[in-house]
Amino acid sequence: MRVTLTDVAREAGVSKTTVSLALRSHPRITKSVRDHVNETALRLGYMPSPILSQIASSRWKNVERLSRPNIAFLSPYYSASNRLDSWFIGASEAADKLGYNIENFQLSDYKSPEHTVRVLQARGMEGIIIPPVRVHNTDICLDWSHFSCVHIDVGMNHPPLHCVRPNYIEASSQAWKLAQQHSAGKIGYVLVIEEDDEWHSRDLAACLLFKNYAPGRERMVPPLILRPADYLPLGPWLSQHNPDLIVTNNPGTHWALVELKIRVPDEVQIIGLNIYERDFMSGFRLLNQEMGVAAMHILDSLVRLGERGIPVYRQTHLMELLWNPGTTLRTTARK
After folding, report:
1. pLDDT at position 272, please?
2. Is 171 exposed, middle or buried (0-12, 13-18, 19+ CB in 10 A)?
C-alpha cells in the first residue's frame, strides 16, 4: 500500500502541511524539523506521486492566489544592452504565465552582498535569475542559501548555479560544415576572447580541437585569437594566410574587415557564431529571449521543489542557436 503525506505526518507527529513544506526544504521549517520529516519519509518509503504533483502544478498555475511568489532579476550592473532587455522580457513573460511577480534589481545599488540579501529577503524574493557578468572585477558573492537560483549564460566570475546557456559547440560544428559548403578556399577562425571568460574559451577551444579531426581540416589556417577591441593583428594574419571565409564569434570582425577595405562577401565571407536578432551577418543567432523563458521555467521547478542555494550537481540547459541567412556569404562557392 502506498505511503502518503498523511502517513508521514502521523508518524512524525507534525501536520500534513509541515511535511509538504519540509520535503521541499522550505525556509519556514527549521532544519531540525526538516531532517526529522525527511528521515521519517525515508524510513516509511514515501515516494511523491507524479500524478498528484501534476495536479498541484495545475492548481499553482490556474488558481488566482492572494500573493504571487516574487522573483528577482539581479543584474550585476546598469546596462543599455539589448541582450539584457531580451533576457528580462523572456523571463517576465514566462513569470507572468507561471504566476510570479518579477522585479529588476541592480547589484550596484547596494552597499555589500549582505545588504543585497537583506533587501531581497525583505522584498519577499523566493528566487533569483542572474544574467551573465561581462565586466571585469565584478563578483556576485551572495549567500545563495536563501533563494532558488538560475544563471543565464556564463561570463566572468559567475556563481556555480544551474545555468541556461547557448550551445556554442553545436553552432561552431554546424558553422564548419557550412563553411566547407560555401567556400572551396582556405577557412580561418577569428576568435575574440575575454581574458576571464573561461567558459566561452573552453567551448571554442574544444571546437577547435574537434576541427583537428574534422573532414576538410587541411583547408583550415591557424586561428587568430584576439582580445576585445584589438583588431590590429587581423591585417597581417589576412596577408599571411589569405582565407576565403572567416568563422568568428564577434560581429566586430566584420567592421574590422571593412576598415581594411576588404569587400564582404566578395573577397572574404563571414559566418558569425553569436549574432543578434535582425543582424545582417550570416551566422547563428542567440535566442536571448527564449533563454530568459527557459531560465524562468527552471527556476519555477526549483521553487516548487524547495531547492535553494548552490546545487551539489550543477545542471546546464543548452539552447540551440538559430541560423540567420544574412548577407555575408556568397550564394555560390568560388572555384
Report:
1. 93
2. buried
Rounded Cα distance between 9 and 7, Å, is 5
The three grid cell numbers given for residue 186, joined into one nine-digit string: 582556405
User: Mean of the pLDDT values across residues 17-46?
Assistant: 81
* Residue 148 scores a pLDDT above 80: yes
Q: Are 152 and 186 in contact (CB under 8 A)?
A: no
Please provide the average confidence, as pLDDT, over all residues in the chain: 83
DSSP 163: E
- Tell me the pLDDT tens digit for each residue of 60-96: 555 444 468 899 999 876 554 556 788 999 999 999 9
Identify any residues that bridge with 127 across adjacent strands, giving them in sequence order. 71, 148
Does 265 sit behind a cis peptide bond, omega within 30 degrees of 0 on the bond before it?
A: yes
Cβ-count burial of 331 within 10 angstroms (0-12 exposed, 13-18 middle, 19+ buried)?
A: exposed
For residues 319 and 165, the answer to whether their CB atoms sit within 8 Å is yes
Tell me the C-alpha distance between 92 and 6, whole Å. Answer: 37
Note whether 33 and 18 are within 8 A (CB): yes
Q: To the nearest 10°, the Cα dihedral for 255, 261, 265, 267?
A: -140
Pairing of strands 322-324, 283-285: antiparallel
Cα dihedral sign, 286-292-298-299: positive
